[in-house]
Each structure stands twice: as C-alpha cells, then as structure tokens.
Amino acid sequence: MANQARVASLQDNINRPTRTISYPKRADGKPVYTSEFFGENVFSLHQIAKALPKPAYASFLKQMRGRQALDKATADAIAHAVRIWAMDRGATHFTHWFQPQTGSTAEKHDAFLTLKSNFTSNGEEVTAIDAFSGSQLLQAEPDASSFPSGGMRTTFEARGYTVWDTTSPMFIQEGPHGTSVLYIPSVFISYNGDALDEKTVLLRSTSAIAKSCSELLNLIDPVPVGAQPKVSHVYTTLGTEQEYFLIDRSLYSLRPDLKHTGRTLIGNLPPKHQQMDDHYFGRVPSKVMATMSEAELELFRLGVPIKTRHNEVAPQQFECAPIFEEASLAVDHNLLTMDVLSKVAHKNKLKVLFHEKPFKGVNGSGKHCNWSMSTDRGENLLDPTVKPETNYRFLLVLVSVLHAVQQHGGLMRASIASSSNEHRLGACEAPPMIVSVFLGEHLTEVLNSIEEGRPIKNFSVPEIQTIKFGGTALDVKVASLPSISRDLTDRNRTSPFAFTGNKFEFRAVGSKQSPAFPVTILNAAVASSLQDVTAALREQMGDKPYPSDADKVAVIKKFIASTKAVRFEGDGYSDAWIVEAEKRGLPNIKTSPEAFEQLLNPLHSDMLTKLGIFTASELQSRHLILQERYAKDLLVEATTLSTLLASQVLPAVFEYRSSLAQAISLLKGIDAEDATPELSALRALTPVVKELQAAVDNLNSAVHKMHEVGDDPVAEAKYACAHVQPAMTEARAVADKLEVLTADKYYPIPHYSELLWF
After folding, report:
1. Count of helices and strands (H, E) across the chain
2. How high is the pLDDT of residue 464?
3. Taking every annotated instance into account, which residue ranges of this chain make up the domain GS catalytic (predicted)?
4. pLDDT at 176
5. Residue spans of alpha helices (H) in 423-568
6. What is the pLDDT of residues 46-78, one digit of tens each?
C-alpha cells in the first residue's frame, strides 16, 4: 500500500537506538570541565600572541582596530603559525568562509599540500610539501558570477575576492576520517570592491555606530584639552536566541515539500498539538537531548558560548541561546550554530528545520536578536542603573534608539522580510508587521515624568523592586521562599522591538535568516539617530564647551515628545493596535515585496549611503536580490506543491475511490442497502477531488503567467505575492480536506501526527 514507506520509517524511528558520544574525560575518568576545553578548536588571539614576536603582535592588534595595514611579514608569520596549529589537529585543507547573499554560508577548500620543483643536474625533482602563505591567508578568489549580485556583475565578470576578517578568529571543524579543515572568516567583495556579502556591510555599520556613539559620549563627558577621550571605542553586542524544529529524517525524506522548501505545503493539525501548553519547558526527548549535547560539545570546542537549551511552545520545537558577544562575532557564531545543529542532527538521523513556519497551525520559529551597546571600558550603555531618571547618558542613548525606530521602522521591517517570515509575522506567536517599541511601565513613567516636568512616581523604592514572601504588597504567602529581585520591566512578547532590562530584543527576525542584515540596519539607524541627538545637543548648548544637565534634559525631552508614536505598551496581536498604529502614522507593511521597496525610500537610502553602509549601487543590488529571492522561493513552493498533488495525493485518492467503487459494486450484488456507507464516503470524496483538480490547474496557470511577466525581479515578486501565493493557499485548503477523507493506508505523505511526535 501507499503508506508502506511511512510505516517502515515509523518503525525505524521507534527501534533505532539513541546515538551516544563521550564527553572529554581526564586520565582518572573524571569529566573535563567545559571551561577547560572551551575554544580548543579556535586559533585565538592568545595563540597568535604566542606565535608572533611582541612587535609583530602589537602591529597585528593595530591592524585589527583599523589603525594600519597588515604587512607581509606579519601575515606570513601568522599563516605559518596557524598552519602548524591546524595540521597538528588533523587539518588537511583551508577555506575562506564567507556569507554571500544566499541566506547561508559558503566555502571552497584548498589543500595545504603543494609541489616544489628542484632542478638538479639529473633534471627536475618534484617534492611534496605543506605550505600556507600570508597572501593565501589574506585573500582568495572564488568565482563571483554564480552568487547573487543584483546586476552589479554579469556572468562573464566572474572575479570576486574573499578577504580575511581579522576581527573574527580562525577555527577548525572536524571532518570525516579524522581529518579537519581550517576555516578563515572572510568578507566577500567584487573586483570593483562592492560588497557581495552580509558581513562587509555589518562591519561598516559597527564602525559607523562606534564613531557616532563615541562622539556623543565624549561630548557629554568631556576631558581636559589634550587628554585622551574617556571613550575611544563603542561596540554593539548581540545574543541570538535560535529556535528550530527537529523531526525524524526518514519521515522528512518522504515529504518532498519539506525537502525542497523547508515547510509543509499540505497537512492538517493532529488532535493534540500545542493547545495543552505542555511542551514548553517540558522534558527534552532523549533523542533530542542526545543531539543537543553533541552539538554543544562541538560548539564549545569552536568557542561558541551556548548557554541555554529548552523545549519551545510547539511540539518538536526547541531553542538554544548563547552568551552575548560582539555583534560581528555573534553573527558568525549563530551561523556556526545552525551549521553544527544540521550536521549533528543528520548523524542522529534527525532533520533540523530552521524555516519560520514549517507546520501550519502551530507556532513558528524566530531568531530573537538581543542587542545593546558597550564601551571599551565594559559599560553597557543601555543599563538604566538604579535611577534612570537622572542617568542622562542612558536616557540620551535610549531616545537615540527610539528616534532610530521612529525614523526607520519601515527599513527595519524590510530587514526581516522574506517569503518564509511572512507566514510567521503577525500570527498568534510572532510580533506584528508594525514595528513599535516596548519600554515597560517603569521606563515609560520615567520618560513621561521628564516630558511633563514632574517628579517620577514611586517606582524606585527598593521594596517595590523586590518580591518578598511575607509582609509586603507582593506577598506570595510562602514564608519558606527567599526574597528575589524584580526586573524594572515585565516582558512583552507581542512587541517586535522590546526593552528587556539592559538591552533591546529585536524579536521579529526570522529563524532561518542570518542576523547580519537586520543588525546592520539596526546599527545604521541608531548611528544616524545618535548623530541627530548629538547635533541637537550641540545646538542646545550653544557656545558652551560642554552641555549642562539642563541642556541634556532639554534634548531628552525633545526626543521623548517626537518618538511617542512608536512607543506601545499594549497587546501587539490585537486588531485595536492596527487601528491605533494607523492613527499614529506607523507603517503597516504587510507583504515582503512592499517591504523591500523601503530600501529605495530616500529617507532610508540617503541615511545608509551617507553613513557609508551601502553605496547606491549596492543598495539597488540588495533590493533586486531580495525581490528575486522572494519570487524564486514562491516559484519553487508552487512547483513543488503542484507536483506533490498531481503525482502523489491525487493518485492515492484515485486508488481509494477505485477501492470504494469496487466495494460498492460487490456489496450491491448482495444487498443494495449494504453499500450505503461506502457510497456515502465516495459521494463525499468525489466533489473534493474535482475541486482539487481545478485548484491544481489554477496553480499551474498562475505559475505559467508568472513566467510570462518577464525578467523583472520586482514584477515577478509582486505577481507571485498577489497571485501564486493565493493559488497555493487555495490548493492546500482542498488537499487538506482530502487528507481527512482518504483512508490512511492509501495516503503516502507522513501526517503531522507522525512528524510532530516521536
């Protein structure tokens, strides 16, 4: 029968033993502490310091900080040292590891092995040697013609360069048969120096925000003439909470839609899914725990500081989260985390799904980007401290962020737009498509009191900030429990951009996408806003050498008033908020093609080009690449769905109808009334089959017309959004009816009940 492969996969899932690995142990059998092997596969600054003479190491540090170029002698010394280090750990190849605009990473491996020719009196003698030069470390030349360029490069203009990003450490990843590969984190640029990747623009944005923020901080905290500024560098920090699904790989292999698109294009919810609220923070299934533990072991060795793991809301949905790091390194580590999870899941005969909405009807997955700024003295600039109402540095930075979202919320919406994230945003488990900011009751009162020129309400009384278990208004009435600290703000999971104590959480980022582009846009918006706040402060202080507290308060008050529209403390899922947001003038951008147009809006594009984050051609290229990817994603989905319905679902239903017809014929030969149940089932099935055939024809017609639109990514994306996507929705609705009406033994596609529960 058609479901034999499903049954075999389910039996294999049940009978398959859990894969086991051994964590490192000492000679006496005791476990090695995680801190002792953390980062052992990373060629860290400490390793470089050991390998280089002190003057050369000092020179390298200056290069890392952008103060001078890296000379050939230092590059050769580092290359030699990292080759020996890597080969001692089994490395046979090296690769420049980069982030093209494909939503993934890319790598091309080259062997350390080379041949050296020696000419003697007896002729040429060839010797095999291992070598790795400074020039090989610094750059490589992958073919750029096959990567997205948005028209900046033609097919015959193939040359592109990967360049070592010295701010991100090299590392090795273990391969098959005891070998490994040296990975060199890199940027990817065209022959003309245009950014073809995600990292180049991210690094530009971090430089922009460092410059803008340092200028503001040194203005409000001046130093004597001739002295060094108190803040010489500001960097953004990032912690990415990664959500994902894990399902059985053999069942995954029976779902063409999952294999080709990352999501199920047909399927009904099982009787029990997430409605009992019993999966969230529940016990992690043993097969999943084995996968998590193995992935964590590899990530710890790679220096990725994974901190948290737990069940998420939907069945078979999980999350991991790291300790905060500098943003560009955190992006590298998030992409590594996704890569390692995929590899380890494969070893455990599972499949990890990063798609934002792989299963209709249950929660989708996001990548919550927890973002802040810190000084080179280790000060978190978004720490409100005990009395935020008098912490003017914090308030100036805070209103800068609010101003950034107020001005460039549409651009932030564009940064998280994709065909996959469309299925999640605005649903019952994800932030809406309207970008707003949640601050919490305490900070809202602080800003309101400053704007209104009145004392703050009694939020800072110590007793209010502690939950005690006896004798207070917050008495939980369990005397044996200790007192705990209460945060200044509650959490609002309906907000796309929420303040969570000492950072902002950009919750709208999709689980599948690289965090690089959303963080780039956020950095750029805040960098521009910091410049606006600094300019307003200079204007307020006039000829004075530095601003007074009254000047700071005046500027803070100005930006509090101008950013009130973007602050929202309520339920972002409610219909009332959509109406309210429209009154406030906040954009409600519902589709991705519409969102991508924000990149070319002069309000946003002028800011991005002025700061040097993008050139005009790079921005135009990015816009076309995103539109083209959206159109292609929907085209692949539509073609996959059409093929799946025509080649598997309809034939299965035809076979079931045939069996019903035969049964009716046999039963009528005995007693016509005995065939009534089968006849009723056939009559219920037949009109739905006809309906599905019509829906498939409509879908194929939409796909055909999309091809006729022409070679215009923008027009294709808009057509796919307006016509192909609705045709897919219609076909799915009918197919899902047939799944219920068709006898299980004829149905070839694994059901949700099989995919979502081990």
Report:
1. 24, 20
2. 43
3. 198-649
4. 85
5. 441-452, 516-541, 549-562
6. 999 988 888 888 888 888 877 667 888 889 999
Whether the per-residue pLDDT at 462 is higher than 50: the answer is: no
Residue type, 322: P
Domain range 629-755, CATH class: mainly alpha
Looking at residues 264-288, what average pLDDT do you find? 84
Q: How many CB atoms lie within 10 A of CB 467?
A: 15
Please choose, from the candidates 201, 196, 97, the residue with its C-alpha nearest in 3D space to the C-alpha of residue 147. Answer: 196
Q: What is the pLDDT of residue 16?
A: 79
Alpha-carbon gap, residue 525 to 435, rounded angstroms: 14
User: At residue 210, what are phi and psi to the nearest 5 degrees?
Assistant: -65, -45
Residue 540 structure tokens: 């307020």
Query: Residue 399 to residues 392, 414, 526, 527: CA-CA distances in angstroms?
Result: 10, 22, 10, 12
With a CB cutoff of 8 Å and minimum separation 6, the contacts of 14 are none
**pTM above 0.90?**
yes
pLDDT for 461:
43
Tell me which DSSP letter residue 510 carries.
B
229 class by beta-carbon count within 10 Å (0-12 exposed, 13-18 middle, 19+ buried): middle
> Helix, strand, coil shares of the chain as percentages rounded to 5?
50, 15, 35
What amino acid is encoded at 507 in this protein?
R
Q: Where are the domains of the chain?
A: 38-197, 204-440+489-614, 629-755
Asked if residue 246 lies in contact with residue 351, where contact means CB atoms within 8 angstroms, the answer is yes
Residues 413 and 592: their CA atoms lie apart, in Å, by 9
| Dihedral angle, C-alpha 112, 113, 114, 115, nearest 10 ° | 160
Q: For residues 281, 287, 293 and 299, what is the CA-based torsion angle, rounded to 10 degrees?
A: -100
Which residues touch 439 (CB under 8 Å, ≥6 apart)? Answer: 447, 489, 499, 567, 569
Average of per-residue pLDDT values in the chain: 89
How far apart, in whole angstroms, are the C-alpha atoms of residue 615 and residue 675? 73
Structure confidence at residue 522 as a pLDDT band (50, 70, 90): very high
Contacts (Cβ under 8 Å, ≥6 apart) of 413 = 433, 435, 508, 587, 589, 595, 598
Fold of 204-440+489-614: Creatine Kinase; Chain A, domain 2 (3.30.590)
For 38-197, give the CATH class. Answer: alpha beta
Report helix, strand or coil for 440: coil
The string of DSSP codes covering 330-349 is HHHHHHHHHHHHHHHHHHTT
pLDDT category at 158 given cuts 50, 70, 90 is low
Burial classification of residue 27, based on how many CB atoms lie within 10 Å of its CB (0-12 exposed, 13-18 middle, 19 or more buried):
exposed
Q: What is the 3-state secondary structure (H, E, C) of 26-66?
A: CCCCCECCHHHHCCCCEECHHHHHHHCCHHHHHHHHHHHCC
